Amino acid sequence: MKDTYDVVIVGGAVIGSAVAYYLSANPDFDGSILVIEKDPTYAKASTSLSSSSIRTQFSNPINVRISQYGSEVIRNFADMMQVENDRPDLCFHPGGYLFLASTPEQVQILRENHAVQVSCGADVVLFNRDELADAFPHLNVADIELASYGRSGEGWFNNTGLMYGFRNKARSLGAEYITDEVVGIAREGNKVTSVALKSGRTIGAGTIVNGSGPRAALTARMAGLDIPVEPRKRTLFVFDCADTPEGTANINSGRLPLMIDPSGVFCRPEGRFFLSGCPPVEDPISDWDDFEPRYEEFENIIWPALAERSPRFEAIKVVNQWAGHYDFNTLDHNLIVGRHPEVRNFIFANGFSGHGLQQGPATGRGVSELIIYDEYRSLDLTEVGFERVIQNRPFLEKAVI
């Protein structure tokens, strides 16, 4: 381990490891990379506790294209991340997303979103009530006016597999990882210069990347900067179904999609079980170490909504549950990626608000381009940069789950 690195990445989960990979894999970069991760087990990382899905059904073209690239990476992951004989398999399940709309406002949003998605080349179709009933006969569609379904490029996959694939490949290409915690960041004028570690060491840094997930604001404050990101708790439930509807669909080889009910409750197959969650009734900032599930959400919100949506979901039983943290962007619930406009060698990769896994590949690539070329050369992420935070100018995205 050296005393100074060209790039120091704070946080080694999916975002930090994606940045490390794209930097180390680019032949135009010959600098040194250090990734600092305080928990090598990643047990409480948002990456490990997420529902690990990807969709192209967003309302903003940038988010659509970010996920299209993420889907491309997932398809080619084994080849991209091969290290010697290890070819990581993400076990991608191409189930698609199914958004259901029951009100005129929801219908309008689905139609507007669909126009954007199709203009970007996304493989998304709209179903009327009869088409929806034919495709998914287990559903009660009496109140549904329109549905939006992703035929390809959407599904779910191995969350830690994505992270470890990036991590292992980056290490094989020369990136260094250490187990430690950043407790301070030194700054001289408009330049960050080093990080202080809990172990007592000080490491010089040419560029610092904030990839610290829900703790992004803590990292930024060490450099005298503010970012509107805070931890928000989300609980996921795995349940068994006495009369499973999986296999009953008349499309996609019988496989069910990830369904988003008009109530906001979502549900998707998880092996022989189902995974489900919902937007919380109240959504306060969470304590950094509070991972206690909100058990009542299943009985009070999820089960009633699912039983109403399908008779097959009347007899279900929870077999597991856990809580994780969103790195929640309180400004607009969307990623913040890019340099600080004044402290130019401090780069944000934060605020994904539940979309970090699917947006990790494009983020890693984009941040690496900023570091190497001082510009985006693939997908222009300027619109989701930090400048909008300073200007209090939210990035509009209507399809937030």
How is this structure best summarized?
The protein is of the alpha/beta class.
Structure in words:
The chain is α/β, with parallel strands linked by helices and 401 residues long. The chain has a domain at 4-69 and 159-230 and 331-390: FAD/NAD(P)-binding domain. Helix content is 28%, strand content 26%. It has helices at residues 14-25, 61-75, 77-80, 104-119, 129-135, 159-172, 216-222, 296-309, 356-373, 387-390, and strands at 4-10, 33-37, 53-54, 97-101, 124-127, 146-150, 155-156, 176-179, 182-188, 191-197, 202-210, 229-241, 258-260, 266-270, 273-277, 316-329, 336-339, 346-350. The strands form 3 sheets. Strands 1, 2, 8, 9, 10, 11, 17 and 18 form an 8-stranded mixed β-sheet that branches. The two termini are 42 Å apart.
Large-scale geometry = globular
What proportion strand? 25-35%
Helix content: 25-40%
Q: For the CA atoms, what is the radius of gyration?
A: 21 Å
CATH class of the domain at 4-69 and 159-230 and 331-390: Alpha Beta
The helix/strand class is alpha/beta
CATH level-two architecture of the domain at 4-69 and 159-230 and 331-390: 3-Layer(bba) Sandwich
CATH topology of the domain at 4-69 and 159-230 and 331-390: FAD/NAD(P)-binding domain
* Helix count, DSSP H or I runs of 4 or more residues: 10
* Low-pLDDT stretches: none
Order of helices and strands: EHEEHHEHEHEEHEEEEHEEEEHEEEHH
In whole angstroms, the N-to-C terminal distance is 42 Å
CATH homologous superfamily placement of the domain at 4-69 and 159-230 and 331-390: FAD/NAD(P)-binding domain
- Largest sheet descriptor: 8 strands, mixed
- What is the number of beta strands? 18
Mean pLDDT: 97
